């Protein structure tokens, strides 16, 4: 499927019957109490046709891992805006990838991941090298890039049968 490249446009895909009912987990991490970022992502993904399980804010690592292992989602979307996203993300992705059921599940992270603006290429590279499939820094095109990424995920993905990793660009951004 080719997507138009118009800035500011959100591409809904709810008409695609194959996408309906695929589950996406939206979650924050243990340190982060912000919630509207999660609500925003949930609504966006529901508009794209997904069945969203929103784990909420301040999610302890063990709960995040056990919920994802049980739900076997087509995608895990990790959001952080409090400034601890890089550190929390590096810790959490290790635990997610150490879980047999989640070795190949697509997992992305985004939001305001640090306290000094955009993440460095090195930070993004480290997050990707540790196992995230994509990093969406809080840039003007972040949500559009996220839309593109989500729409490219095969509908009805069986996580245990699929292993794919998007390579970072030289800047680390997709
Ligand atoms: C409301 C708010 C709070 C409320 C939260 C209430 C609640 N129930 O959510 C309270 C008062 C609790 C709070 C607390 C704190 N906050 Co606060 N908060 C805000 C505020 C004003 C609005 C956040 C909001 O709701 N935005 C609306 C949602 C829809 O948008 P968003 O969060 O920006 O998310 C967008 C993007 O980041 C992106 N996105 C987010 N996640 C993801 C994931 C993916 C995959 C993708 C693609 C995109 C994406 O998409 C969203 C929509 O565009 C922001 C400042 C601001 N104006 O943004 C500060 C802000 C987020 N808070 C901040 C800080 C520092 C704190 C505290 C540490 C303050 C303190 N010293 O106590 C604590 C942290 C508490 C904790 N343990 O996490 C900083 C974070 C700084 C940073 N990261 O560089 C901000 C940016 C304020 C600032 N300018 O300094 N906060």
From TrEMBL:
Single GO term (MF): cobalamin binding
One Pfam family this sequence matches: B12-binding
Domain B12-binding stretches: 21-160
Family matches, as InterPro entries: Cobalamin-bd (IPR006158), Cobalamin-bd_sf (IPR036724)
Membrane-spanning segments: none
SUPFAM superfamilies xref list: Cobalamin (vitamin B12)-binding domain
Official protein name in the record: Methylaspartate mutase sigma subunit
């Amino acid at each position: 499927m080719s997507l138009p490249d118009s800035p500011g446009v959100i591409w809904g895909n709810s008409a695609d019957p194959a996408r309906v009912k695929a589950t996406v987990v939206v979650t924050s991490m243990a340190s982060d109490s912000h919630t509207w970022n999660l609500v925003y992502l949930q609504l966006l993904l529901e508009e794209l046709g997904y069945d969203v399980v929103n784990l909420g804010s301040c999610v302890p690592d063990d709960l995040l891992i056990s919920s994802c292992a049980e739900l076997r989602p087509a995608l895990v979307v990790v959001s952080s805006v409090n400034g601890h996203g890089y550190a929390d993300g590096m810790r959490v992705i290790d635990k997610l990838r150490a879980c047999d059921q989640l070795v190949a599940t697509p997992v992305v992270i985004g939001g305001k991941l640090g306290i000094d603006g955009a993440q460095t290429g090195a930070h993004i590279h480290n997050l990707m090298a540790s196992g995230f499939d994509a990093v969406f820094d809080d840039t003007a095109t972040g949500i559009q890039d996220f839309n593109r990424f989500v729409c490219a995920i095969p509908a009805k993905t069986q996580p245990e049968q699929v292993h794919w990793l998007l390579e970072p660009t030289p800047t680390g951004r997709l």
